[in-house]
Design a protein that fits this description.
2 strands, mainly alpha, 3 helices, rod-shaped
Length: about 220
């Protein structure tokens, strides 16, 4: 039984056969054995067939691997898309909840700010009203005491003597007492105004802080 040769061995035999063939007289031709060439071609076919089968198997295996890889890639892509959609929904839900909480916080802060301003305004108005009432009360009391001094001095002057000096001194004391009372009223009014100013300043500062917090909260929402 003839030993089976590889493709390269068959090609070497063909090259040797062509190299050792006798040249013909005319033209670039040689004389070779048909039987030998036929045998070598058969060997070549026998050698190529297994390699073709092996190559076909490799191609089929490669195609199967590619198909499996493509299937796995499609599955991974679908899983990634589903996971991305789920995370997107969660992020949107969290964003809505965060915005709702921030809007509620903003609404509460605005309501508290309005209530603070309203209370401060009412307190300032009440202080000013009390100061005015106190001012009028002091003035009325001073007027009453001054009138009483003048009346008493006038009665004494009428009883004792109709002395102009006594009346003048009584009027002087009454005017002095009235001026002192007015000065006391003015000082008290200034103190009240200063207290109101301090309170208004504190309210303004509190409002500025709340407005700053609201602006910071709005910036966080915009982000």
């Amino acid at each position: 039984m003839e030993e089976k040769m590889t493709i390269y061995q068959v090609l070497d035999r063909l090259n040797l056969l062509l190299g050792s063939a006798k040249p013909l007289p005319l033209g670039n031709k040689v004389l070779i054995s048909k039987e030998e060439v036929t045998r070598l071609l058969y060997q070549l076919e026998e050698s190529i067939a297994p390699e073709i089968k092996e190559a076909r198997k490799l191609l089929e295996k490669e195609a199967a691997i590619l198909n499996e890889s493509r299937t796995q890639a499609d599955q991974m892509l679908r899983a990634a898309e589903e996971e991305s959609a789920r995370k997107k929904q969660e992020a949107e839900k969290y964003d809505r909840e965060l915005r709702a909480a921030a809007e509620q916080e903003l609404s509460n802060a605005q309501r508290e700010a309005k209530e603070t301003v309203s209370r401060a305004s009412q307190q300032a108005q009440q202080i000013e009203t009390d100061a005015q009432n106190q001012h009028h009360a002091i003035l009325n009391d001073a007027n009453n005491r001054a009138n009483a001094i003048v009346a008493d001095a006038q009665r004494n002057a009428d009883i004792l003597v109709s002395d102009h000096e006594i009346t003048r001194r009584a009027q002087y004391e009454a005017e002095k007492l009235y001026e002192q009372t007015q000065q006391e009223c003015q000082n008290y009014t200034e103190q009240v105004h200063m207290s109101v100013g301090v309170m208004v300043s504190q309210v303004d500062q509190a409002m500025e802080e709340q407005i700053s917090q609201l602006r910071s909260l709005r910036q966080q929402l915009n982000v």
